[in-house]
Inverse folding.
């Protein structure tokens, strides 16, 4: 029997589940490539297989979905059903993320999180600003940063 999902749809579902090659990630990759940055993708020998790796800058970028990675922003809506199950699952994701970030920093890598809400929705950053912020961080940023920036 034929599968209800076409290959393309299945590929898309898998990408969403694994968080690789998602639309926001592709947007960031495209922007940075255009700006002249070169990077490696999903380097499996590094903790957490970072989405983008910049060996020259000793820096990695994760493009993160706000729901899956529990960003405290307007895009975090809890499902109405099985809410406790979801909360547990997403908290576990968050704990895993933090452990990965710690390991990377111990290895001397700098970590930038680019959240989905920086790329879409009502609070998205203008692309020019986003690429500027990422470029600045790559060239001379701190050991850990997030976009949108966390208000001090
Ligand atoms: Zn967010």
């Amino acid at each position: 029997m034929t599968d209800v999902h076409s290959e393309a749809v299945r590929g898309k579902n898998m990408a969403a589940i694994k968080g690789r090659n998602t639309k926001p990630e592709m947007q960031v990759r495209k922007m940075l490539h255009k700006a002249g940055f070169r990077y490696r993708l999903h380097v499996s020998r590094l903790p957490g297989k970072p989405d983008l790796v910049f060996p020259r800058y000793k820096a990695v970028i994760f493009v993160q979905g706000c729901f899956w990675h529990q960003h405290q922003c307007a895009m975090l809506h809890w499902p109405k059903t099985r809410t406790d199950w979801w909360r547990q699952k997403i908290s576990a994701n968050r704990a895993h993320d933090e452990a990965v970030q710690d390991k990377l920093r111990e290895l001397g890598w700098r970590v930038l999180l680019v959240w989905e809400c920086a790329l879409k929705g009502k609070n998205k950053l203008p692309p020019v600003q986003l690429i500027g912020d990422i470029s600045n961080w790559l060239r001379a940023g701190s050991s850990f940063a997030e976009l949108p920036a966390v208000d001090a």
